[in-house]
């Protein structure tokens, strides 16, 4: 992989992550607005998504490590990804 491809992949990853975060944030802000509440509609899945149930624990005697991963995909996040791809193509 050349340096140019690696740089473009890194920029794409940053732009996509920014789109997901901003889209999800805007969806969260719009959840109480009646005509924009659909932006926060989505699905949450992962390990340990609710409380302590499902969290993977590693007891080392001296310390306990807990691992969990939760992903929430919303309409706002999907729109953010689409806009991020459009912005990336314009760069």
TrEMBL record:
- What keywords appear on the UniProt entry? Membrane, Transmembrane, Transmembrane helix
Residue intervals passing through the bilayer: 12-30, 60-88
Under Pfam families, the record lists: DUF4321
InterPro entries, per database record: DUF4321 (IPR025470)
Q: What is this protein called?
A: DUF4321 domain-containing protein
Query: Could you tell me which species this protein originates from?
Result: Anaerocolumna jejuensis DSM 15929
């Amino acid at each position: 992989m050349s340096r140019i491809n690696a740089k473009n992949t890194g920029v794409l990853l940053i732009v996509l992550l920014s789109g997901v975060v901003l889209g999800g944030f805007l969806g969260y802000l719009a959840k109480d607005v009646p005509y924009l509440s659909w932006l926060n509609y989505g699905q949450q899945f992962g390990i340990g998504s609710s409380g302590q149930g499902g969290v993977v624990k590693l007891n080392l005697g001296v310390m306990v490590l807990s691992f969990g991963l939760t992903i929430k995909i919303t309409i706002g996040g999907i729109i953010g990804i689409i806009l991020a791809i459009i912005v990336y193509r314009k760069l």
